[in-house]
Amino acid sequence: MNQNGKIYLLMGVSGSGKTTIGQLLASQLRIDFFDGDDFHSVSNIEKMKSGQPLDDHDRHDWLKNINTLASKTLATNTSAVIACSALKKQYREIISANLKESIIWIYLHGSKELIQQRMAARQNHYMPVALLQSQFDILEIPNESIKIDISLDPQTMVNTILQETNKSTLGIVGLGVMGKSLARNWARAGVKLSLYNRFVKGVEEQVAEKTIQAYPELEKASGFEDLQSFAHALAKPRIIFMMIKAGKETDVFIDEILPHLEAGDILIDGGNSHYADTKNRITRLEKQQIHFIGTGVSGGEKGALYGPSMMPSGSFEAYQKIEHLLYSIAAKDKNGSPCAAYIGPEGSGHFVKMVHNGIEYAEMQLIAETYAYLRYAQGLDPYRIAQVFDEWNQGSLHSYLLDSTVHILQKKEGDDYLIDLILDVAGNKGTGNWATIAASELGIPAGMITGALFARYVSTLKESVRNLRQTIIPNSKTSQLSIETVKAAYTAARIINHQQGFLIIRTASLEFNWNLDLATIARIWTNGCIIRSTLMEKMMVAFHEHQDLFEYEEIKQEITLLKSKLKAFCISSLEVDLPIPCHTSSLDYLNSLSAMYSTANIIQAQRDFFGAHTYQKMNDTSGAFYHTEW
Ligand code: NDP
């Protein structure tokens, strides 16, 4: 995004006053003025003089000349005012090619009668009045422009333009942990912001103003606590990014802001909303011509502040209008591309974010289980385990979550490791639960996400756990598996976790016709987000070739090699009564997939026995279903 230069492009039919207003605007802004008509070829001018209207072919090179003029101006970090009729959308696209974010379109509009009068009074211009009708015929009014009524006096018109161009590019609603950090990130990227946070008299006042005062980079932002002024401060079409509590609170807020919005405005929901809610909101708001985009945002507070991974979905047309804003703050992948990409239609962005969180649950649980094994089965202290994890983290097992755990395990409070002082009851905010439900509804055995979620639930059953602790004495035997074996087990289980997670996404894509691109999703998860890792980079490559990780030869071979280590880890953990639901789930999954016969024949027979549900027969290619009177 060019942050220093702007092109003020005044458009409208001939005689609407583009030159007069353009010159006045340029002089007040102290920048250059260019009349687009001066960039016509001699043959175009001759054609117009002879009373023939120009066709699209005649105009093409002329519009490209104006694009070159604008590019050259911006390349020197300066601004300019250009007057140019630019009546058709396709003309404006040629002019703004590669410069979209730096061009402010200003449309001078008025009645044909008024313009005719003005043209008749004009002398020495090559455009005959008779050609005016041809201009009105082809005029496509631009939606995204500052619209100025030409019946106003010139200074009022210029004042209105100055007022409108001074408006904020982006509004942010909700200045909690994430909203505040995203605002700071956008401000550093040079985006002009208006900030809003709800107002509770006597409890929570002037939140936006206080946030602006607390962070120097927000100095140029404006703070609001009434929605009307907030909406008024935003350039049209308005772009509003909501970072508030997901659920009914989001719907309540949408109802509050709706009266202040107009057709073409864009509402973006960055909260962790359920994908079905996002789909409903898109449909509901479409009826009022408001675009709604649901976007997953990952990376926590730090990610929001320095570069999150973002997963937007909804109308592609609306997405194109906000892409530059997402790109301006997103983390960058290894090749320098932003970790943000259009995911697909409906609530697919929030769906993908939900699965991201599911994968995250299992990734966290696998580390926790590995820690528990090294600590309780092998007797290593947290500091030594941190060393082991750190070593793994320097190599192919590098991940943000493993890296974080190294720091966690080194932290002391007084003489104690802080980890030993933290209550062993895990919380959750619901996305793991949604991922489990979605996987189940789609018929995908995402046992590792479910295992991780249920491990958190089990940790909350404090009373029953305590009762059992009194009656079942854990096995205190120690185990002697090598660190290399533990590492191999963790490596295998992580691959299976990713295979299951992406399988949920792939299945949803087919089920809902979303046409999701798994390689792109893996790419935008290689940085900025909580599950970024070296493995994710491998996933990105794998999904370029195959839609299922287990079809990828290199991964298949790796899993085959590692399986015996995963099994050894599970046996060893079970021998000392360690709960390792994610590791065992991954091993069960592998065993089920690779078993000569599954147990499903018994299940089918039982279903037919009590419910006459029928079954199919081995090696029977007829597709027939059978029922037996058992
Ligand atoms: P916080 O609790 O820090 O902030 C929540 C924000 O929502 C506050 O500004 C709060 O206003 C506002 N809010 C709450 N209820 C309402 C309401 N009824 N009307 C208007 N505003 C309301 O949460 P986070 O910043 O952590 O999270 C915000 C959203 O981002 C959530 O949907 C969350 O799931 C999602 N998210 C969070 C991530 C994280 O790591 N924390 C990561 C990715 C997404 P007030 O201050 O007045 O209460």
Layout of secondary structure:
Layout: E1 7-11, H1 18-29, E2 32-35, H2 42-49, H3 56-75, E3 80-83, H4 89-96, E4 103-109, H5 112-121, H6 132-138, E5 146-149, H7 154-165, E6 170-173, H8 177-188, E7 193-196, H9 207-214, E8 222-224, H10 227-232, E9 239-242, H11 248-257, E10 266-269, H12 275-286, E11 291-298, H13 300-306, E12 309-314, H14 316-329, H15 348-377, H16 382-394, H17 400-410, E13 412-413, E14 416-417, H18 431-442, H19 447-459, H20 462-471, H21 483-512, H22 518-524, H23 534-545, H24 553-575, H25 581-594, H26 600-611
Parallel strand pairs: 1-3, 1-4, 2-3, 4-5, 6-7, 6-9, 7-8, 9-10, 10-11
Antiparallel strand pairs: 11-12, 13-14
Bound molecules: NADPH dihydro-nicotinamide-adenine-dinucleotide phosphate.
Describe the structure.
The chain is built from 26 helices and 14 strands. With 630 residues, it is an alpha/beta fold. It folds into 4 domains: 7-165, 3-Layer(aba) Sandwich (Rossmann fold), CATH 3.40.50.300; 170-346, NAD(P)-binding Rossmann-like Domain (Rossmann fold); 353-594, N-(1-d-carboxylethyl)-l-norvaline Dehydrogenase, domain 2 (Orthogonal Bundle), CATH 1.10.1040; 598-630, Single alpha-helices involved in coiled-coils or other helix-helix interfaces (Up-down Bundle). The strands form 3 sheets. The chain has a 7-stranded mixed β-sheet, sandwiched between helices. A 5-stranded parallel β-sheet has the order 2-3-1-4-5. A two-stranded antiparallel sheet has the order 13-14. Helix 12 (275-286) packs antiparallel against helix 15.
